[in-house]
């Protein structure tokens, strides 16, 4: 099929590339010229495992093209997939300006009957508004809610092995075309009303966010009552009703989805006259959780001003260079505000960190140089390089104060390494100082 994907971000680029791999003729449109130039040259502007090789293959066989020229993108599509951003507004609602901007371009650019599948996460009722917009513009468009469930860091795998493909429309014609599009993936497809499909996306993301905030809440309580969250989770996850995933305690969720999707659903509920108390609680727990490490560190380090502080991991999770809503960001900002000299190590997000903080921080090439002479170390991302590091590297620090927001190490190993160590929901370890 001829497919146009609008938006070459994490969702659009991966979707376009995978659809090209399974045999469709795909053109991906983005208004960011720099991004398109890179992609046309076979370079991927984001860090996403396995993506670059698939882009190269798609370009080489000619099933995948990139453009920033609308006319080219709208020449002959049968299906257009919309994957533009829907960031949050100041009040927590979803900002739909990119969605309706792209819809205007579609209405102006197409001449034949097409299907528009909306992959962007949009509040319930938005697809109906999009359909009304096309009707007003007299564009022959059938709108399908087709939410995306990939996770950054495993996006290619998640798309190729999708657990489910949700097709939200009551049009038999649109259902059959969307099924034709995704059939080569051989994954389960579920059809439903547009509004239900929109809600599946929010309910799924918000459930996961709720699970994270729940386990963080329990971890915090463990600290108060001398229980150990690792042992608690080990005992919980045997229960299949609870499940094994998303039970890792830490300094909270971040990224481009959970923070904004929890706030958008909460906002939507309020607008509809309903208070979504569970999601409200998840948001509140997460906001407080982000500053747990700094709170703990303030008890040990009398002042940060003029001190070298090491930060290991900045990306909102391992496997991505994305810093959007990463818990590390407000923490680094706090450290800078109080006059600390911040040294950062992140295996893939360094370029984005530099772009974000400019020359106010220093980025090291390795963990050792980041730690050398530091007064305290904060761990915000559980990269394998950090989880697997030799704990003797902490001996390079001026003071061995380590605040681990992702529980990267075994307490028994940390005890042998002899340092002040705070992690989430576990016993705080004090350095013996006996040398
Ligand atoms: N990132 C994820 O893990 C993820 C997962 C599932 C769903 N989603 C949802 O998918 C949507 C996209 O997310 P993302 O992370 O890929 O966003 P992104 O910010 O990485 O990418 C969006 C892209 O759209 C482009 N764009 C905006 N308006 C355009 C227009 N009119 N024409 C052409 N290009 C345009 C931007 O230049 C940008 O490159 C969001 O609604 C998000 O909530 C994201």
Sum this structure up briefly.
The protein has 18 helices and 14 strands. With 435 residues, the protein is of the alpha/beta class. A 6-stranded parallel sheet has the order 3-2-1-4-5-6, with helices on both faces. Strands 11-10-9-12-13-14 form a 6-stranded parallel sheet.
Task: Outline the fold blueprint.
Elements: E1 2-6, H1 10-21, E2 25-29, H2 33-40, H3 51-61, E3 64-67, H4 70-73, E4 79-82, H5 97-109, E5 114-118, H6 126-136, E6 141-145, H7 155-160, E7 165-168, H8 172-182, E8 189-192, H9 194-225, H10 229-236, H11 258-271, H12 277-289, H13 292-300, E9 308-312, H14 328-337, E10 341-345, H15 350-357, E11 362-363, H16 367-371, E12 376-379, H17 384-387, E13 401-404, H18 411-417, E14 420-423
Keywords:
18 helices; binds nicotinamide-adenine-dinucleotide; 14 strands; alpha/beta; Rossmann fold; 6-stranded parallel β-sheet; N-(1-d-carboxylethyl)-l-norvaline Dehydrogenase, domain 2; globular; 435 residues
What would your notes on this structure say?
The chain is an alpha/beta fold. The protein folds into three domains: 2-192, Rossmann fold, CATH 3.40.50; 200-289, N-(1-d-carboxylethyl)-l-norvaline Dehydrogenase, domain 2 (Orthogonal Bundle), CATH 1.10.1040.10; 292-423, Rossmann fold (3-Layer(aba) Sandwich), CATH 3.40.50. It is 43% helix and 14% strand. It has helices at residues 10-21, 33-40, 51-61, 70-73, 97-109, 126-136, 155-160, 172-182, 194-225, 229-236, 258-271, 277-289, 292-300, 328-337, 350-357, 367-371, 384-387, 411-417, and strands at 2-6, 25-29, 64-67, 79-82, 114-118, 141-145, 165-168, 189-192, 308-312, 341-345, 362-363, 376-379, 401-404, 420-423. The strands form three sheets. Strands 3-2-1-4-5-6 form a six-stranded parallel beta sheet, with helices on both faces. It is globular. The model has no long low-confidence stretch (mean pLDDT 96). The protein binds nicotinamide-adenine-dinucleotide. Nicotinamide-adenine-dinucleotide is lined by residues 6-12, 29-32, 35, 83-86, 98, 101-102, 105, 119-121, 148, 150, 152, 256-257.
